[in-house]
Amino acid sequence: MLLMVLSAAACGVSSAGTLAPGGHIADFTLTDQAGAAHQLYALSGKKAVVIMTQSNGCPIVRLAVPTLREIRERYRSQDIEFLLLNPTLQDTPDAIQREAEEFGFGMTVLLDRTQQVGEAWGVNRTAEVFVIDPKTWTLLYHGPIDDRLNYESQRPVRHPYLTDALDALLAHKAVAMASVVSPGCLINFPHRKHS
Amino acid sequence: MGDLRRFGLFVAALCGVAGSSFALSPGDVVDDFRLNDQNGQSHELYYLSDMKAVVLLAAGNGCAASRAAAKTLDALRTRYQAQDVEFLAIDSNLKDTPDSIAKETKADGTGLPVLTDELQLIGESLGFARNGEVLIVNPQNWKVIYRGAAEKGANHYVAAALDATLSGAPVKVAHTDAAGCDIVMPERERRSAHAQISYEKTIAPMLSEHCVACHRDGGIAPWQMSSYDMVRGFSPMIREVVRTKRMPPWHADPHYGVFSNDRSLTAEETKTLVHWIEAGSPRGGGADPLTAVKKDWPVWALGTPDLVVNLPKFDVPATGVIPYQMWTVDNPLDHDVWVRAVDFLPGARSNLHHIIATIGGEMAPGDKRDNTDGSLADYVPGSEPLQIPPESGILLKKGAKFGFQAHYTVNGKPVSDVTQMGLYFMDKPPQYRYRAAIMANPRIKIPANTKAYTNDAVYKFDREVLVYSLHPHAHFRGAAAEFVAQYPDGHEEVLLNVPRYEFNWQTTYVLKSPIVLPAGTAVKYSMTYDNSTQNKANPDPNRVVPWGQQTWDEMLFGVIRFRYLTLDANPTRTAQASP
Fold it and tell me: Are residues B15 and A7, on separate chains, in Cβ contact within 8 Å?
């Protein structure tokens, strides 16, 4: 009886996480594809931390990475950290290293092999970007880089969401579009339910 | 943390067996899906992201509660459609067919599209238990904002929920009990059995047969089904692409025609795969067949070709939209030959998306050339070589030129491609010419910011013909296609319905049994275009789009491959020109 109540409650949990713009980002330490450890809060001196979710073999990530690299170049003087986060169960450090080399990521990939960051942030898909304010450790933006990419298609950019968010942060203004639905590959978080 | 994780898995297992607790409640997210309605038109839930609300009704033929709810919603539809609210019914009842649903809605005079959920996968996941039940979804986040009855006495629940949502207020009554007719869903009670579906004996062989030709090392698919771990990691994505009919890439409505190159999963396979994923993609025991998949690619499946034609080298960039490449290549032969088969050997399988090969270039409307020129063969990933039926052939004249239209996709890194075409010749002229009928409209003008604009072209056959295949073609704005035969006695038959035309997959639909069309039969080919911002491939919805070879322009262009039924007295003689 207790179990039934328990299961009914847990089954009602929605697949989206609870982290929303304005929400608090807890500290974590993760290793990268080369085995080096990275602590999030060690980046407290940065103006912003931009983290994009990644999984090997996802076409939307592979096509988004060159854009992310361009944006990093454009904001090079602004002291913003750009990182990738792989919260998948299937990608091994070696496989991620190979993917990073083959597609010229040129960025650190944080391996979230226990999925604890992905779970806490409510990650749903790859190519989701999280913009974090390291002064307050709050989430400023969650969504795609822009509206260029979709499943098996791309079109000219109309809304550059990520750079809009960064420009707002640098100008000490509020981010106008703080949460945008993002296309990408669904990541398997085994205990979330399907709907 | 470890305890929490175990707890999570434990709860997941419980969710899997507690069938009725699968129902979606207000606040839960509705996953995307695509279904055809009773008229063979395609509807995708997430396409409706520009709506303020989406109202879904569980509907069933012969159910009074469903009928009453449909009438209520039909009236609300008139009231709310101008305020960007979409109303759809979903019929998940095993006894109902598109035809019987169309009859019933016609008799009832309701205008609600009724989506036919013949596999019950969508009804199961929405937790539909009774016909007459209503779900309202908020397209901002795809969460359920209301579940229950359409109305009860003086309580107009749906109207109240819509009024609240449209004014930005929370929905006060978000959950009511809906009376109605029970929907029989055998699989809903079998969730625990789904956890017993064998990865080794059922899932892996199914993936090997249908998916691995592309999802393998060096294939066009971006990731490889090379182990259980990979499949499990991509499981929710596999479920999504199957539910939205993006994969396998086969776009014909299964109610019309049987095609020999059908790439789809059967209904049973689809259900098994999705239920296995919903059970948590269990590994079970046994070997992992996907780790043993052969690594070699076929060279020339039909043996060494009689002539190998090299296509130009093309350097594919890392990203961006690449225009179609149009090439002309000389035929090196100094004599006429009859072609019996055509095959392609891609240089960069991971990037070559399709080739349309012609003799003398793609035929345009009003073209005075006869069918000596025209279509030759197509390449799409995973396709078999074109083998022309034994008694017919394609004439390749000396001095003719090959035309190629090549489409490459980007995958994040630069690649070079040199593709080869292999031709196989006949020993002697065939009895029949393998012909092409072109249906096109070069004067097409697609209005700006329009979700559905349909245009058509007709080809009338003067002689009795045997039809082998049908090929619809459009560009980024192509949305749906249909070939309908209009017989001399007046009746019509749908030869092919493509409810969701997908520009990326230039499929020729090859009939399993060629069909005879009597002399005087006209075939109407129609294409519906989506020139709205909701079409995620549309480069510019503000443009009135004319005919053009490139993908930012459009085409109304369809091809039927056929031969005359009676012997060609002289197959090399010029055929009747296209109308």
Answer: yes
Domain parsing of chain B, residue ranges = 21-188, 195-292, 307-430, 435-564
Give B349's pLDDT tier (boundaries 50, 70, 90). confident
B373 close to B358: Cβ distance less than 8 angstroms: yes
ipTM score? 0.90
Contacts of B337 (CB under 8 A, 6+ apart): B306, B395, B396, B423, B425, B426
- The verdict on domain B307-430 having CATH code 3.40.50.720 is no
Place domain B21-188 in its CATH homologous superfamily. Glutaredoxin (3.40.30.10)
- In this structure, CATH architecture of domain B435-564: Sandwich (2.60)
CATH class assigned to A29-170:
alpha beta
Mutate to test the interface with A, among B214, B215, B413 (most CBs of A within 10 A): B413
**Binary contact (A194, B1; C-beta < 8 A):** no
**CB-CB under 8 Å, A56 with B11:** no
Give the integer Cα–Cα distance in Å for B492 and B36: 21
Q: Where are the alpha helices (DSSP H) in chain A?
A: 2-11, 59-74, 93-102, 116-121, 161-170
Q: Is A35 left (phi over 0), alpha (psi -120 to 50) or beta?
A: left
> pLDDT tens-digit profile of A44-63?
999 999 999 999 999 999 99
Give pLDDT tens digits for B143-195.
Answer: 999 999 999 999 999 999 999 999 999 999 999 999 899 999 999 989 999 99
Angstrom distance (rounded) from CA A84 to CA A78 = 19
